[in-house]
Design brief:
The protein is built from eight helices and no strands. By secondary structure, it is mostly helical. It has two domains: about 70 residues; about 100 residues, no CATH class. The longest helix has 30 residues. The radius of gyration is 19 Å and the shape is globular. The model has no long low-confidence stretch (mean pLDDT about 90).
Length: about 180
């Protein structure tokens, strides 16, 4: 259910785009993000920083898209969000005690600081690349192709990258000593 809630704006954007075009879809995603933010506030009495930043960017870039009637603004939002994520990950390496990825995964993974920094840098580079890939698709393909890329391509690339990171992390975790496993039985 949480996954559906998280992807609600993206889903309604794509459905609206398919039935009514980019400008209606932009208005729909603005409404969906406002609704999502309100629901998060009502349920938890707080809204995550990531959700607030994303909502603000949807409002700014979506608003410009509708006001100026230029779809480039909503397309640029994807790049700006990814580049802000990249900047956040990189800045977290020098500001604060733990890099961003450690803050996100610390409860389930234990790593030495150099590995956290490497993992954090990989995510920053991934988000930086994703921003550039969005620009490439935006300027070299139709709006229809871009919309499909925004919904399925970005999500697919993120899932593949996360799985690759999981495999990389597994290779870095300490191996269990077989003698310890026997004594636990």
């Amino acid at each position: 259910m949480q996954l559906l809630f998280d992807f609600f704006p993206l889903i309604v954007f794509f459905v609206a785009y398919k039935f009514a075009g980019i400008f209606v879809a932009t208005g729909v995603i603005i409404a969906a993000v406002l609704l999502q933010t309100a629901i998060q506030w009502l349920r938890h009495r707080k809204v995550s920083t990531m959700a607030l930043v994303s909502a603000a960017l949807v409002l700014v870039f979506g608003g410009l898209t509708l006001w100026i009637h230029d779809e480039a603004f909503i397309k640029w939002k994807v790049t700006v969000v990814n580049w802000l994520f990249a900047a956040g990950f990189l800045i977290s390496q020098v500001v604060g005690e733990r890099p961003m990825i450690q803050r996100l995964l610390d409860a389930s993974v234990t790593l030495e600081r150099p590995l956290w920094l490497k993992l954090n840098t990989m995510w920053a580079l991934f988000f930086l690349a994703l921003g550039f890939i969005n620009l490439y698709v935006m300027y070299n393909f139709s709006t229809d192709t871009w919309a499909k890329f925004k919904v399925f391509g970005v999500l697919g690339l993120t899932v593949v990258f996360a799985l690759a990171q999981g495999a990389w992390l597994t290779s870095k975790l300490p191996k269990e000593d077989p003698a310890d496993a026997d004594s636990a039985s």
